[in-house]
Amino acid sequence: MASFVQRMMGAAKLDIRTYEEVEADTGSMGQAIGVVLLSSLAAGIGSVSNIGLAGIGVGLLAALVGWFIWAFITYLIGTKLLPEPQTRTDMGEMLRTIGFSSSPGIIRVLGIIPGLQGIVYFIAAVWMLAAMVIAVRQALDYTSTLRAVGVCLIGWVIQVLIIALVYSVFGGPPGAPPGGPA
Known about the structure:
Elements: H1 4-12, H2 16-24, H3 29-46, H4 48-51, H5 54-81, H6 91-100, H7 117-139, H8 145-170
Helix pairs in contact: 2-6, 2-7, 3-5, 3-6, 5-6, 5-8, 6-7, 7-8
């Protein structure tokens, strides 16, 4: 069994075996939570000039909630809407694999370097999306990467709609002007 750091590196390298190992290891939920928190902390540090230190705590909580919601939406889409005949998974498998797909987000800490935040965040987003597709494909036992892309795309649209609904009800993120998101 690989160590926590080895698993994070394997997930960041888009190594299928790492995702299979995490999927099968029911004891790795704490590690998956750790990856989500470390990735979110790196993002907070990388954008501290924009969000301030207080924003890091809010970001950590939002990351955990967002991770759970994303895994749940992906689970429903992958098992109910777009399953393949061999698809067998549970929420734990989805949470673990999707948690580790946040591993590339650690590079967002480099956003603290003046002038690099935009490019670092773009690279991290693309890399994390690729990791997410692999995590979803492995957790759902798909043979088709395209189907995993579809699940991620549909899930992303649903999540954006949920966030927009929450913002419309509660008036946007903290510090936003009244009437909607900033």
